[in-house]
Amino acid sequence: MDETWELTQMTRIEVVINGEDVAVAEDLFSGAGARGFTAVPNVSGLGHSGHHQGRLLFNQRDGLTLLTVVLPPERAGALLEGLRSLLANRSGVMLVSDTWVSRPEYFQ
To answer: Is 107 a domain residue?
Structure first.
């Protein structure tokens, strides 16, 4: 990364989960000190358990939701453990990557 860009390294966690599990994931995010997250309800895709189509229903608990959170690396461990525990017996996928942000105060 070009140091002249003045960016700060963070950890980005993306998880696709059933809508009924969103509240649990949000609690995990809060417990890890996340100051915010992005939720995209009714996502579609093809995965291990087959094809999922975004639902046009009024009930968001039946569809899949993509949650994205960015936080300092030192806070990621506990969140990752919690999400892995949540996904142990449920459908879903988690992606973790290094990312760089221009306004680290938004995530600290």
So the answer is: no
Cα first-last separation, the chain: 21
Which residue range(s) make up the domain with 32? 3-102
Per the structure, how many domains does the chain have? 1
**Tens digit of pLDDT per residue, the chain (108 long)?**
666 688 999 999 999 999 899 999 999 999 999 999 999 988 877 676 666 665 555 555 568 899 999 999 999 999 999 999 999 998 899 999 999 999 999 988
Name residue 36's amino acid: G
Domain CATH number, residue 63: 3.30.70.120
64 located within any domain: yes
What is the rounded CA–CA span in Å between residue 105 and residue 108? Answer: 5
Q: Which of 24, 26, 27, 62 is nearest to 41 (CA)?
A: 62
